[in-house]
Design brief:
about 35% helix; Dihydrodipicolinate Reductase, domain 2; globular; single chain; alpha/beta
């Protein structure tokens, strides 16, 4: 074998000057191969070296394509998306729009249990950076193999929440960074309502992830959970309020609503605004609020805490109820240092959906345990999900807006202040621009902007975090830059 020329030797020294000897050996092998192929992958890491402790932060992982024809070096993140549903598709459309030249996103493997669906999304994107594969999100070993085979350095989890722990572990074991849009929780069959989430859940939301923070930190990898609109954007809003609007922020209450409707629809029709599985879990599980003065996390029965809230910008009055949601837990984790004492999450549900959900629950149709039906076994929840009206089928018919925000209360210069920070998304405009209904595109947009911050290495730190851990300003600047409008409205101060 001929020895490499001076130009190649200089390139090697430049690319690997901060790598360890072990990493260098493997990466030089890959680099050698790259010069014998038109485009080849080379694992490159931008290590942040702590010169005092001689430690390396692997939360910042980068890839590079080397083109032997042009000698061009293109850096970028290699991403695997698990779950090619409506939100996953929306997310990828936005990522392609934000980085058309592959400046920070060099490759995306789109995976789904239904390979034809993954292929459909890749064909729609029509971009050579995107490929597809069949993925079983509950098969950790298969996912690890795909991560390693495709040299993935970032895994985006857009699969149903029940698969999130498998994907989280696969990314960790394969050495990739990770993000998701929500977490998995398992309530007890007989919840002990009241103080202590651990008394009502065998697996409380976010616990699986945060319990492994030190492991991820030690290994130098980053996991960011709860990306989307809520959780996601509202977490950024809450952090901004805590750090920019108040001297001390005592309360943060997420409110999810809107005025979406289908003109001429049957008044008795049941409409699921988003994934049926997610609705069944979030709404029917015991709900959780944070109240420091009462001892911490308080658990109540479904549909508790009903209130009426006037949404701004003409959206109008919404009737809201508490549901289980990650923000309550992550706010308590990261915003207590700013004075937080109370946090809730409430969502708007129409009467027809509430009635239907109660019937489904009483009949045992939320169950994940297979039941015998004739000669076959079926999972009741799968039947409900298959038969329920699908959100994607009514997107073109809906009019109105989704509006999601966080009501923050605190003190500034000795006076009580209240603000509502929110993001609203018009359904007709969303369908015209993104081909997705508002709740889908709004969620996909929120996740895509966070992925951009990860891809550009603005969010980078080893461990497990949620969005409110980071400086909110880079995210809000991206919202301004992309036209993903957000607003701050001061509310009249209410008496305590």
């Amino acid at each position: 074998m001929n020895s490499p020329g001076p130009k190649k030797q200089n390139l090697e020294r430049h690319l690997f000057q901060e790598e360890t000897d072990r990493q260098k050996e493997g990466n030089l092998t890959e680099l050698w191969r790259a010069w014998n192929h038109s485009i080849a992958y080379v694992a490159i890491t931008n290590w942040q070296k702590d010169r005092e402790q001689q430690m390396y932060n692997k939360a910042s992982v980068r890839s590079v394509f080397v083109c032997s024809k042009t000698k061009c070096i293109i850096y970028g993140m290699r991403m695997m998306l698990v779950g090619a549903g409506a939100v996953g598709e929306s997310m990828l459309k936005i990522l392609k729009w934000r980085d058309p030249k592959g400046e920070w996103l060099s490759y995306v493997l789109v995976g789904d249990y239904d390979a034809s669906r993954a292929q459909e999304v890749v064909d729609l994107l029509a971009d050579e950076r995107f490929s597809y594969a069949q993925i079983n999100a509950t098969d950790k070993e298969q996912m690890k193999d795909l991560i390693q085979e495709h040299k993935i350095d970032f895994v985006m989890d857009a699969a149903p929440p029940f698969a999130s722990n498998y994907i989280f572990d696969a990314a960790y074991e394969a050495g990739a960074n990770y993000a998701n849009m929500g977490t998995w929780s398992v309530p007890m069959e007989e919840p002990a309502y009241g103080l202590g989430i651990e008394n009502s859940y065998t697996e409380p939301m976010t616990k699986y992830n945060f319990d492994r923070h030190e492991q991820w930190k030690k290994k130098g990898q980053m996991a960011v959970i709860c990306l989307g609109i809520d959780p996601g954007v509202v977490n950024v809003f809450a952090k901004y309020a805590a750090t920019h609007l108040f001297d001390r922020m005592t309360e943060a209450h997420v409110k999810d609503g809107g005025n979406l409707s289908v003109p001429g629809a049957d008044p008795d029709a049941i409409q699921f605004g988003f994934n049926v599985w997610t609705v069944l879990d979030e709404v029917m599980n015991p709900n959780v609020e944070y109240d420091q003065e009462k001892g911490g996390l308080i658990v109540e029965k479904a549909f508790a805490g009903q209130e009426t809230f006037l949404m701004p910008d003409g959206v109008g009055e919404n009737t809201l109820v508490k549901v289980e949601h990650e923000e309550v837990v992550t706010f308590a984790r990261f915003l207590k240092q700013y004075g937080l004492k109370k946090a809730t999450f409430k969502i708007s549900l129409d009467d027809n959906l509430i009635t239907a959900l109660k019937v489904i629950d009483h009949l045992g149709l939320r169950s994940l345990k297979p039941v015998q039906v004739g000669n076959v076994k079926v999972v009741p929840r799968d039947v409900v999900a298959a038969c329920a009206p699908q959100p994607k089928d009514i997107g073109t018919e809906m009019i109105g807006e989704m509006l999601v925000g966080v009501h923050c209360i605190g003190e500034k210069d000795g006076a009580r202040k209240e603000y509502f920070l929110y993001q609203n998304f018009d359904n007709q405009a969303s369908m015209a621009r993104w081909g997705s209904q508002a709740v889908v595109a709004q969620t996909g947009f929120g996740a895509a902007l966070a992925i951009e911050l990860i891809g550009r290495e603005i969010w980078k730190e080893a461990g497990v975090f949620s969005p409110e851990y980071f400086d909110p300003e880079p995210y809000l600047k991206l919202m301004d830059e992309t036209g993903y409008e957000w607003h701050v409205m001061e509310l009249p101060v209410k008496e305590k």
